[in-house]
Structures are given as structure tokens and as C-alpha cells.
UniProtKB/TrEMBL annotation:
The keyword Phosphoprotein does not apply. This is Glutamate--tRNA ligase. A motif ('HIGH' region) lies at residues 11-21. PANTHER family: GLUTAMATE--TRNA LIGASE, GLUTAMATE--TRNA LIGASE, MITOCHONDRIAL-RELATED. A motif ('KMSKS' region) lies at residues 260-264. It is an enzyme of class 6 (ligase). It is found in: Cytoplasm. Residues 4-346 form the Glutamyl/glutaminyl-tRNA synthetase class Ib catalytic domain. Its EC number is 6.1.1.17.
Length: 512
């Protein structure tokens, strides 16, 4: 590529950033970094009626948490600022006027009532009303009115919009990096509004002007903008500007594979569709976020990269650095990508195992602090983070989230509150109380209380007395854990200490 790559992510601050928006930002980021380019954040807030307080900061926070921060944007390397469209509105009118002067756009004075009448009239005749070449000369605009009439309306302050003049009987040949060559018959295009009666540009005009002024080389955006591609190409041509290259990403589909993924799907099936938790400033409704639900950003990024992109290999686990090296827009699929909530959990489990036990302990400690009781085990009343770290090393293989740790490890911090009925029925026999009394005596007699000593003494006693290992180890595990689960029994005894081990054995025997 001869030009330095410049891409932009341009969300509207109308609420929290949807997972689909994060995927769009990610693909822009990967493409920019792959080509040593610049990733820009631009806030498209021309629709002030839909502006939501806090949404802009949420977008920035979400990108930062995901590990894909923008290189250029609000308060950061502002070479082409401002980066909020609402602060650029003084720019757009001159470009709209330029299109009128070149004959590529025109003033339209039609009132809302006029347009409603035409729509209703067309519907009654089984037709669809489209404002374009076939009827624009019959409507109230600067193409059908004389120059004097147009000037009179402007001087009188009549409300107007500025529409693009779509060509008639032409075939547009468009290119998309993902979708290839596209042909469009201009006769089916409507004359889109470029400038509204409230003095603000529409998305189409502002988008093109900003992309040109910010020297954007590639526009990577969602499939929902594909119908706008013809107009955007024509606008570049009308201005005499070189158009960027376009790539339209496939939709993210519901887990069923049918229809676009929505917040409702997440609410219904129990998974978030936003990267961070969002509290609506108007309704106060709180929506779940991947961060707060215990997902690692690396898992989310790895998962999102595979929604529509395929590296062409069997590899599924990619670091961000590896994604940058492997990413190519040409390997993005045209068809929609099904969102699989179980797959992102699979990624999260993987990245959980890669975290250090010490780092996980710091995250788990508040949960322990909240749950632990006065019956906490010997030596852990202060809930030492190093103790927690060792515990995590024993149980994290079975965990997907930090929130799973307590259920998997509660017995390391407090005695079982009950014993699993099915397990006790299986493990406790007539001679269990006598066996446990012998085991308790062995434990009390050990001076060097360690995993190795416990294992040697207890296994030696079992062998010497020709007793089945299950007759000893199963009730012992139930005494310590409350169920037939958990890591090595001797590790558990060592961790909770001699006094707590004896106490738990006595608690089980008292129930026999």
C-alpha cells in the first residue's frame, strides 16, 4: 500500500457499545496495526435527539478495556480534529452548497405533509414512493422551480433540505474488499437528504466529508451500511475526491443463526451483549457487561476475531499480536457469523488458565472476604492472599470465571455446612467410625505435618491393615469437603491444618 493506512471507528453515542460495534472496532484496529497505520475514533453525534449522556465515555472505556485503544481522537493526537461531528457542523454547509453549485444536489422545499400525501397516494396504488428522477420534477424543489422562485423561498426563510441528485439510467460499478464487485442500477436509488432543515448534515454528507478531511484510506464498517455504498461512491465522485477502499463486515447473528443479535437475545438466553456494564441515565436499567460477568478482555477479543474472520488454519487461540500478524480483510466471510455464548466461555476458560495464581488471588480475595465466616480454617482468619493463591492453583483448572472459585474451594476457608447425602450413603459403612478414629489418631501423632508425611503415614496404615483405600479415602474426603470432589485429600489436609482436619473428621463421625 502506497498511502499510510488510516481507518476510523465512528460510533454514535446513543447508548452502550454493542458487541457488534466492538467487533467493527477490533477489525479496524487489527487492519491498522497490520499495516503500521492509524486507528481513529470519531464520534458521530449529529443526531442530538438520540444523544445519551455518558455514552461517549463508555465507548472510550470499552475500547481501552478490550485492549484496542484508539491512536487518534478526542483528547489524543488531535491532528484532524475536532473528532465530534457536532463540533464540526460549521464545515458541512459549504460542501452541501458546493454540490448544489456543481448540479449534484438541489434544494427541496416539500413539507412533511406533502411527502406524506405522496406516500399515501402511492400506497393506495400499490406502489412505493421514492423521491428520485422519475418524480422530482413534479415536486417542490430547485429542479422544478425557477431560479427566481427558489431565491424567493430562500429569502422568505422557507424550510428546506438539500438532496443529492441521483443520476438516471446509469450502472455503478462498485468494489468491496470482502464482497468483490457490485453493480447498482441508479434508477432504483432515491435522492437522499444530505442536509436537514435544522441546519445539521445527515450521516451521509458528514461521513463523507469527515472521511475525506481526515484522510481515511479504508472504511471498514458493518453490513448495514452496504445499501449506502452507492450514494457514498457517488458523493466522492461528485466532489472529485478519491474514494477510500470499502469493506463491509458480515452481521453477527443470534445463537440460533437466524436474525441479527440483539440485547433481547442476551437477556433471554442469559449472556451480555455489551463489553462493560451499562446503567441507563434515563430509565436506570442496568445491563450486564462482559467485564463485570468475569470475562477476560483477551478472551473477548479472541472470540470476536472469529466472528466473520477465518485465519485459514486450525489455530483458535491467538494473542492480540498474533491476530494483527494473521489478519487480512480478504479472509473475512460474506455470510453472517453466529454468536455462540458457549464458545466465548471456552475462550475464557483458556485465558483463565494462563493467568498467574497471584493475579487471580487478588481478584478472588474480595469474594472470599465476603463469604468467609468465623469458622474459617486455621491460619486463614486473615485470609492471606498467598494462601488464596495456593488454593487457586489447585482448583482453577475446573473454573471458567473468578465467580466459580468459591463453589470449588469454599472448604479451604470454612468447614462444610452439610454432607452430600448421595456421597455419604455410598461412602459411610458400619466400620467407618472406627476407621476414622484410627486416622484421627495418626494425624494427631504427626509432628512434621506435611502433605508427604500425611500420605506416607495414612497410606502405610491402610496397607498394613489390609483395608480398601476407598473405605478410608472416601469418608475422609467427605469430612474435609462435604462431597466426593476436590483436589488431592492430603493437599487439602495440609492446607487447612491439623486442628481443622481433626475437627472435620469428628464432625462427620458425629453424624454416623
Amino acid at each position: 500500500m502506497t498511502k499510510k493506512v488510516r481507518v476510523r471507528f465512528a460510533p454514535s453515542p446513543t447508548g452502550p457499545l454493542h458487541i457488534g460495534g466492538v467487533r467493527t472496532a477490533l477489525f479496524n484496529y487489527l487492519f491498522a496495526k497490520k499495516h503500521q497505520g492509524t486507528f481513529i475514533l470519531r464520534i458521530e453525534d449529529t443526531d442530538q435527539n438520540r444523544y445519551v449522556e455518558g455514552a461517549e465515555q463508555y465507548i472510550i472505556d470499552a475500547l481501552n478495556w478490550c485492549g484496542i485503544p484508539f491512536d487518534e481522537g478526542i483528547n489524543k493526537n488531535e491532528k484532524f480534529g475536532p473528532y465530534r461531528q457536532s463540533e464540526r457542523k460549521h464545515l458541512y454547509k459549504q460542501y452541501a452548497d458546493e454540490l448544489i453549485a456543481s448540479g449534484n444536489a438541489y434544494y427541496a422545499f416539500d413539507t412533511a405533509e406533502d411527502l406524506d400525501f405522496h406516500r399515501t397516494d402511492h400506497e393506495a396504488k400499490g406502489k412505493t414512493f421514492i423521491y428520485n428522477w422519475h418524480n422530482r420534477l413534479k415536486l417542490s424543489n430547485s429542479l422544478s422551480l425557477s431560479a427566481e422562485e427558489v431565491q424567493a423561498k430562500l429569502d422568505a426563510g422557507d424550510e428546506y433540505v438539500i438532496r443529492f441528485k441521483s443520476p438516471q439510467d446509469e450502472t455503478l460499478h462498485l468494489k468491496d474488499i470482502i464482497r468483490g464487485d457490485i453493480k447498482i442500477d441508479t434508477n432504483i436509488l432515491d435522492d437522499k437528504v444530505l442536509f436537514k432543515s435544522d441546519g445539521m448534515p445527515t450521516y451521509h454528507l458528514a461521513n463523507i466529508v469527515d472521511d475525506h478531511l481526515m484522510e481515511i484510506t479504508h472504511v471498514i464498517r458493518g453490513e448495514e451500511w452496504l445499501p449506502s455504498l452507492a450514494l457514498h461512491y457517488q458523493l466522492y465522485k461528485a466532489f472529485g475526491w478519491e474514494a477510500p477502499e470499502f469493506a463491509h463486515l458480515p452481521l453477527i447473528l443470534k445463537p440460533t443463526g437466524k436474525g441479527k443479535l440483539s440485547k433481547r437475545d442476551g437477556d433471554k438466553l442469559g449472556f451480555p451483549v455489551f463489553p462493560l456494564q451499562w446503567s441507563d441515565p434515563v430509565t436506570y436499567e442496568v445491563s450486564r457487561g462482559y467485564k463485570e460477568d468475569g470475562y477476560f478482555p483477551e478472551a473477548m477479543i479472541n472470540f470476536l476475531a472469529f466472528l466473520g474472520w477465518n485465519p485459514g488454519t486450525e489455530q483458535e487461540i491467538f494473542s492480540l499480536k498474533e491476530l494483527i500478524a494473521a489478519f487480512e480483510l480478504e479472509r473475512v466471510n460474506k455470510s453472517g457469523a453466529r454468536f455462540d455464548p458457549d464458545k466465548i466461555k471456552w475462550f475464557n476458560h483458556h485465558y483463565m488458565q494462563e493467568q498467574s495464581n497471584d493475579a487471580l488471588a487478588e481478584l478472588f480475595k474480595p469474594i472470599v472476604d465476603e463469604n468467609v465466616t468465623l469458622s474459617a480454617v486455621e491460619g486463614s482468619h486473615d485470609i492471606d492472599v498467598n494462601y488464596i493463591s495456593i488454593v487457586i492453583g489447585m482448583i482453577k483448572e475446573r473454573a471458567t470465571f473468578i465467580s466459580d472459585f468459591w463453589e470449588l474451594s469454599a472448604y479451604f476457608f470454612e468447614a462444610p455446612k452439610s454432607f452430600d447425602e448421595k456421597a455419604t450413603k455410598k461412602a459411610l459403612k458400619e466400620n467407618t467410625a472406627d476407621i476414622m478414629a484410627s486416622i484421627k489418631a495418626i494425624i494427631n501423632g504427626i509432628e512434621n505435618f506435611s502433605t508427604e508425611t500425611l500420605q506416607t503415614e495414612i497410606k502405610g496404615w491402610i496397607t498394613a491393615n489390609n483395608i480398601g483405600f476407598g473405605q478410608v479415602m472416601m469418608p475422609l474426603r467427605i469430612a474435609l469437603v462435604g462431597a466426593l470432589q476436590g483436589p488431592d485429600v492430603f493437599d487439602i489436609m495440609y492446607m487447612i491444618g491439623k486442628a481443622e482436619t481433626v475437627k472435620r473428621i469428628e464432625a462427620l463421625v458425629s453424624t454416623i
